[in-house]
Amino acid sequence: MKSANEILELEARASFDFFWNEANDNPASPGYGLIRDKTTDKMMASIASVGFGLTGIIIGIERGWITYDQGYERTRGTLNTFLYNADESEGFFFHFLNMETAKKYEAFYDCASIIDTAIFLNGAITSAEYFGGEIAELFEKIYTRVNWQKYYDADRNYFFMGYTPEKGGWGQWDHYAEQLMQYILGVASPTYPVPATIYDGFDRSLGKYEDFEYRNSPGGSLFTHQFSHAWFDFKNKIDKDGIDWFENSKVATEAAKAYCLNHPEKFKTFSENSWGVTACDGPSGYRAYGSAPFHPNCDAFNNDGTVAPCASIGSLIFSPVIVKDAMVHFYNNVPQLWSKYGFLDSYNLDKNWVSDMVIGIDKGITLLMIENYRSNLIYDLYMNNKYIKKAEKILEFSTK
What we know:
The chain has 400 residues and is α+β, with helices and mostly antiparallel strands. The protein folds into two domains: 146 residues, Glycosyltransferase (Alpha/alpha barrel), CATH 1.50.10; 197 residues, Glycoside hydrolase 144 (GH144) (Glycosyltransferase), CATH 1.50.10.140. It is built from 13 helices and 18 strands. It has a two-stranded antiparallel ribbon. The relative contact order is 0.14.
């Protein structure tokens, strides 16, 4: 039996190992530094994985898992790949790239991704603050060519979800979800900024589940309450409307646990210490599992009893006691969940099923939130960046 703190260390190191080992480590390759989306597809890289992985390099150096020189070289090579080789449109990168060529992965090609580019940029920003010098210069070149205005629907005051030069923009980020980072990066751009009023363009109305009242994303997946918080430190801050997003994520976490506890007769996987629904691998493939409050028809459609460890661990900074209890349960009572890269993506007792993979973004939110909980390292670096400071002022965030 291992303690919560022992498991935190094991899971953090194993998650780091995914990002370090599942990367293209050939400096002569056009795709040097790209990181796999998941362990079951050897050719598909995810730019979001790279964003988490760049931040993970810093954690690896500080924890003594790699040397400074190793981390610097991998980071420099990765940013050069994105500056010169990776497929992009208007500065936005395609979500999935070929591991070797850095060209868009045709099986999933639709358009360059604003949210996944934002996740990548967050990793690059953190790298720029940590290493400075040439790394910071590479970040500047990548960031300043991103044309946020192309993805801005001025008539409706939204970011588009997708855009191509041929079709223009489509879809909209019109409800609260994981996209807070987009407003931060978009308003601070020195070359193609969007107006501060874009922050007013998405619905953030309150919903209620039992006694929990909070702003939930439409599908109710926990990752939507976590991803922007992996880099931007919302603790003790309120926005210009008085919203405390940190507290909102805490309530969402506790509501998500309550949701699972209310359905043990329906799903065997749900229990006091086995909870957390998010976008993850499932018995029928990848699915965005969610919890209330959401559209009344989503319950039956979205959930089949699948629990993902990253859903709870990604909320470690919000509700550490219940998250640590969940980690102890997963490690000590569900041994088939453990792998060389830490917890596998998910499991489902009703289906007698355990995922056979780990997914980059799920390992990423796990690794970063563990480090944020243990040291505040990532927050200290990211919040010191000049563009992030600029965005705080433009968006009128203030200290409580």
